Amino acid sequence: MELKKEIIERVNQLEEKYSLMGQSIESYLDGLLLSNYLTYWDYIQLDTLLTLQNPKTDFPDEKIFIMYHQITELYFKLSLHEMEQLANNGKNIQSNGHDLGWKESLDVNLFISRITRINRYFESLTKSFEIMVDGMEKEQFLRYRMALLPASGFQSAQYRKIEICATDFINLVDKDIRDRFVKNPSSLEEMFENIYWNKGATELATGKKTLTLNQFEKKYGVEFLTLAKEYQDKNMWAKYKSLSEHDQKNPNLINALKELDVNVNINWPLMHYKSAVRYLQQNTEDIAATGGTNWQKYLPPRFQKRIFYPELWTSQEHEDWGKGWVETNVFRLGKS
Ligand code: HEM
User: Fold this and answer.
1) Residues of the chain with pLDDT under 50
2) Which of 17, 31, 83, 90 has the most CB atoms at less than 10 Å from its CB?
3) Is 53 helix (H, G, I), strand (E, B) or coil?
4) How much is the pLDDT for 63?
5) What local confidence, expressed as pLDDT, does residue 20 receive?
């Protein structure tokens, strides 16, 4: 039987691919003959995925709580995946060097496209957060949460990694003492000692770091610092500043960055805060948060004022951060 021209062409391409690596195409063709057909369930590792929901109690709603956290972590992972490409000029860092035949350079369009993707992930998370706010029975939640102590979403490392990859590290230093670090440039280690989130995990009564925080630092402290060092010159703000002056003025790019700031630092935190209010606030007193913290004072964005891109906002906008109007006045700008 005569082989079609298209097949011969591909065999030649394969021959070239493998011989470049000193590999024999015959062996790989043997492998192809022997390998099974791919199935949906194997490809997405469905069986493994569906074994990962293991509640600590028999309250049915605990499964919702676990799965929604897992869904969120997957969206966080998608966001980090986009950030990694921006940091590495369009490349996937795990790339094995095989030329896939598409452009790998950071231009303004790639920048906008990847930030828009992250914005879409966070918009999806913000909308779906109602699953937490309204989708579980309070009575069940208040019971099964006691079996989860001292674990807290506070310990989500990907959430902090998104912040580290999004902005200059100085913007993550506790805002009340940040000026000191601006005036006397300090090492990443010193800034890390004063990271904003310490305030969210300090015992109200004693001022000591909570167990939740101690465990978190023990597991991820070194990883965070390593990432912060790696991203000093390639976080999203550094990458933005590396564009030409002309590109930096691109209104769609500026708007995408501002949307990201609002999505990550206002809209998601507000929805999250809403869930804390729904479950942990009672008429007379607040139910102690998982880590024994003053979540009422810590969680609202208007108190935290975390801002990734302060230079893109006016001082009035800094002042009004998280006070509601940003959403209607700024977030929808540029969207018809
Ligand atoms: C019923 C739902 C939820 C409630 C009542 C709740 C409550 C809280 C509270 C009280 C804190 C303050 C720290 C502490 O003392 O534990 C916190 C922090 C946090 N939670 Fe949740 N949470 C909920 C769902 C989630 C989900 C689904 C995620 C997704 C990963 C999440 C991620 C976080 C993060 C990242 C922080 C740290 C926030 C910051 O440092 O600004 N939470 N949560």
Assistant:
1) 333-336
2) 83
3) coil
4) 98
5) 93
* Segment 251-302, tens digit of pLDDT: 999 999 999 999 999 999 999 999 999 999 875 555 665 556 678 889 999 9
Residue 14 lies in a domain: no
Q: Is residue 226 part of a domain?
A: yes
Q: What is the pLDDT of residue 281?
A: 83
Is 301 a member of any domain?
yes
Residues with beta carbon inside 6 Å of ligand 1? 68-69, 72, 132, 152-154, 156, 159, 197, 200, 272, 275-276, 279-280, 289-291, 293, 295, 299
For residue 150, cis peptide bond before it (omega within 30 degrees of 0): yes
Q: Does residue 257 contact residue 240 with C-beta atoms inside 8 Å?
A: yes
pLDDT of residue 85: 94
Number of domains in the chain: 1
- Domain coverage including residue 86: 61-93+103-331
Cα 306 to its chain centre, rounded Å, is 15
State how far the Cα of 88 lies from the Cα of 27, in Å rounded to an integer: 34
Token representation of residue 212: 């939740």
Q: Are 269 and 122 in contact (CB under 8 A)?
A: no
Which residues, 6 or more positions from 39, have their beta carbon under 8 angstroms from its beta carbon? none
Please name the residue that has the structure tokens 């769609």: 252
Decide if 266 contacts 125 (C-beta within 8 A): no
Q: What is the DSSP letter of 4?
A: P
Q: Ligand 1 mean position to 155 CA, how many Å?
A: 9
What is the per-residue pLDDT for 103?
Answer: 58
- Kindly state whether residue 183 falls inside one of the protein's structural domains: yes
Report the alpha-carbon distance of residue 16 to residue 22 in Å, rounded.
Answer: 10
Q: What predicted TM-score, i.e. pTM, was given to this entire model?
A: 0.92
